[in-house]
Automatic annotation (TrEMBL), chain A:
One of its GO terms (biological process) is cell-cell adhesion. This is Tax1-binding protein 3. Keywords: Acetylation, Cell membrane, Cytoplasm, Membrane, Nucleus, Phosphoprotein, Wnt signaling pathway. The keyword Nucleotide-binding does not apply. It is a peripheral membrane protein. The lineage of its organism: Eukaryota, Metazoa, Chordata, Craniata, Vertebrata.
UniProtKB/TrEMBL annotation, chain B:
It comes from Knipowitschia caucasica. This is Vang-like protein. Residues 168-178 have a biased composition (Low complexity). It is a multi-pass membrane protein. Residues 112-130 have a biased composition (Basic residues).
């Protein structure tokens, strides 16, 4: 995951994940838990590399739930939800953006360390090739 | 015919009007305005008195003068202190005056007195008031801040108001210690009041108490002295025990004296309309004690010439003990009992709505009234009649009347009511824009006041820079710039000139000009300069209306009328409302009990205060 340099745009390798919400009673659930936000304490985050990163992270994925099926993993950092930015957002607002009752599908852009490694590896492979 | 009746009374004895034949005069002075002739029949007077009773009940607490002026009961206030003979004025008393007289007397007597005594009382009060109208104003004028003379001239509009103006000043009278609420005794007291001149009335209670106290003080000494004087030879010799008792007696008497001086010999600050129950109780108790002791002494000691002197000394000592205990009782009843708060009084001034809440203990209505007035003078901003009403320009816009034409209606009976109703309906339907004007007028006035205040502040600041305190320098060397040394008065006059105009304009804008004369401003300026005050401190007196006490002229008593539906010696209780009247406004006091506080307990272990950092809150989606 990219480190954040203040003043510079954040760049990251992201993966698109589309989750279909599951109706359970009168609620639409996604099947994962999030943590983080600009109003939370970032040093408690076990998944972030940079302990001052106040982004939204996935802390738990219910096995067999819609998020699991769609490919979300524990420790992912969510960058966007349906176009809404999640890197500078309060925890409560992030929740609101994810649980809108009139949306059945949420399209997330998530990033994880392994993605970076894969891409770097691929680039390096190409470099080596050349 | 009213004039006739009073003249008749005047030529009779001033002191005691005859009780007989009261019916006729009662009818006359009560119904004079209606023009009814002097009724001499018993039946007519009975009807009148019944009518009176009805009107008594109908009277509100003097709040709606309109209804009173309609029904015109000739109720009178309580005893007044008529000082000397004023000319009896044959004028109609209107009911508006009755507001000012405390109508409470009618109410408070209603319960305990019969009709007849009330009639007599009222007739006599009437007669007395007509006598005393001039005198009372001489004795106690009710003029307060310097603006008041203006106000009283305004308020005495028409002769009817003026007529009873004196009566308002006569209400707060001295205590009548010996009046008990029974008909005969009340009558006797009234006669007594008629005969004693004004000033003695107030001190009657005091002198009675003083005499009784002195008598009680002298009694133990008399008990000791009399056997010695009368049958000294046959007394048993009594050595050390007696001397011990002498010493204790002496010290107890000394303590009694000192505490009497501390407790009771203070100049009273208020005189109540009715007697002070506790004080009378205590005086009665003292009298009872002393009398019974004397009785016993007379029968058992003086008669048989008792020889056991030690017993006599012990007896005297026990009397002193009893007196000390009575004094303890007095302390508790008069001073301590009302200290614990039990009621909350809401005091609202009727003219401009300024209100305060006070906590008081268990008091009678008249004592509570005195308490409230004490606090009124230092808490309430002074009554400024100039800022009371909306300016006429705003309200009078409504007054354009509609003309009503009746189109060929035959019966004229329903016309007037129909007309007025139509007018009211039309006025209600018309779009009312006076609130707009009020709003803009208010905003404009506020702006004006602020501008003038700014000018005033600047002017005063500048003026204060012109003078400074002259330090006495030991070396008065350079007579090059001989500054003339002024005393505070001259300094004040010197710097008053530049700020005078700004001050005057500001006072006019806030309508305080009647409270501050030029003389008073210069005095205040001198005062501030002497005490090294800053311009801001000088101005605090003028920027806000201060409490009434600030504008009070000392040395004159203040007249207040207590209006109450209950007897004024009854204790405060929930839901009671009474009011204190002055000629131009009144204070309405309502009583609510303080809530009972049920305090619970919760124990918090000091070790239970633990904190954790707020972790990443994890929410499942």
């Amino acid at each position: 995951m990219s480190s954040y340099i203040p003043g510079q745009p954040v760049t990251a390798v992201v993966q698109k994940i589309e989750i279909q919400k599951l109706r359970q009673g009168d609620r639409l659930i996604l099947g994962f838990s999030i943590g983080g936000g600009i109003d939370q304490d970032p040093s408690q985050n076990p998944y972030s590399e940079d302990k001052s990163d106040k982004g939204i992270y996935v802390t738990r994925v219910a096995p067999g739930g819609p998020a699991d099926v769609a490919g979300l993993r524990v420790g992912d950092k969510i960058m966007q939800v349906n176009g809404w930015d999640m890197t500078m957002i309060k925890h409560y607002h992030a929740l609101k953006k994810l649980t809108k009752s009139n949306e059945v599908v949420v399209r997330l852009l998530v990033t994880r360390k392994s993605l970076e490694q894969v891409v770097r590896g691929a680039m390096g492979f190409h470099k080596e090739e050349h | 015919m009213f004039g006739d009746s009073t003249l008749k009374r005047q030529t009779g004895s001033c002191a005691c009007p005859r009780w007989s034949g009261a019916g006729s005069t009662l009818g006359s002075f009560r119904r004079n305005r209606r023009g009814s002739a002097l009724r001499s029949g018993r039946k007519a007077s009975k009807i009148d008195s019944l009518r009176t009773k009805v009107e008594l009940l109908r009277l509100p607490l003097g709040l709606s003068t309109k209804s009173l002026s309609q029904c015109k009961p000739q109720l009178l206030g309580p005893r007044d202190k008529g000082s000397g003979a004023g000319a009896p004025r044959a004028r109609a008393l209107t009911a508006t005056d009755m507001d000012n007289d405390s109508t409470y007397s009618g109410y408070s007597y209603k319960s305990s007195h019969s009709r007849s005594s009330r009639k007599h009382r009222e007739r006599r009060d009437r007669h007395r008031s007509s006598k005393s109208r001039d005198g009372s104003s001489r004795d106690k004028s009710s003029l307060q801040p310097p603006g008041e003379p203006l106000l009283d001239a305004e308020s005495t509009r028409g002769e009817e108001r003026d007529d009873n103006w004196g009566e308002t000043t006569t209400v707060v009278t001295g205590t009548s210690v010996d009046s008990v609420s029974q008909e005969d005794l009340t009558r006797v007291t009234k006669e007594l009041e008629d005969s004693t001149p004004l000033h003695c009335r107030r001190y009657l209670g005091l002198t009675l108490g003083a005499i009784l106290g002195l008598f009680a003080f002298v009694t133990p000494l008399a008990f000791l002295a009399l056997p010695q004087l009368l049958w000294r030879d046959s007394l048993d010799p009594c050595g050390t025990p007696c001397e011990g008792l002498y010493i204790s007696l002496a010290f107890k008497l000394l303590i009694l004296l000192i505490s009497t001086w501390a407790l009771f010999l203070r100049p009273p600050r208020a005189s109540f309309p009715r007697f002070f129950v506790y004080r009378c109780l205590l005086l009665a108790l003292v009298f009872l004690f002393v009398a019974s002791y004397w009785l016993f002494y007379g029968v058992r000691v003086l008669e048989p010439r008792e020889t056991d002197y030690r017993g006599i000394v012990g007896y005297a000592a026990s009397l002193v003990d009893a007196l000390l205990f009575i004094q303890y009782l007095a302390l508790v009843l008069l001073e301590v009992r009302h200290l614990r708060a039990a009621f909350c009084l809401k005091v609202v001034r009727s003219s401009d709505g300024v209100s305060r809440f006070y906590n008081v203990g268990h008091l009678s209505i008249q004592r509570a009234a005195a308490w409230v007035l004490d606090h009124y003078y230092s808490d309430f901003p002074v009554h400024n009649p100039a800022v009371l009403n909306l300016p006429k320009s705003i309200l009078s816009k409504k007054a354009s009347a509609f003309k009503i034409y009746s189109l060929g209606e035959e019966n004229s009976t329903g016309n007037s009511t129909g007309q007025s109703r139509a007018m009211i309906a039309a006025a209600a339907r018309r779009r009312d824009n006076s609130h707009n004007e009020y709003y803009y007028e208010e905003a404009e006035m506020e702006r004006r006041v602020r501008k003038r205040k700014a000018r005033l502040v600047v002017a005063v600041e500048e003026a204060f820079t012109h003078i400074k305190r002259h330090q006495d320098e030991p070396t008065p060397s350079s007579p090059k710039h001989p500054r003339e040394v002024m005393d505070p008065r001259e300094a004040a006059q010197a710097i008053f000139a530049p700020m005078a105009r700004a001050m005057q304009k500001y006072l006019r804008a806030t309508r305080q000009q009647s409270y501050h004369t030029m003389e008073s401003i210069i005095n205040h300026l001198q005062f501030c300069i002497t005490h090294n005050m800053t311009p801001k401190a000088f101005l605090e007196r003028y920027l806000a209306l201060g409490p009434t006490l600030q504008y009070l002229d000392h040395g004159r008593g203040r007249q207040w009328t207590l209006v109450s539906e209950d007897a004024v010696t009854s204790a405060l209780r929930q839901g009671l409302v009474f009011s204190l009247k002055r000629p131009d406004f009144s204070l309405v006091v309502s009583v609510t009990p303080l809530p009972f506080l049920a305090l619970g307990e919760e124990f918090v272990d000091p070790k239970s205060h633990k904190f954790v950092m707020k972790l990443q809150s994890e929410t499942s989606v």
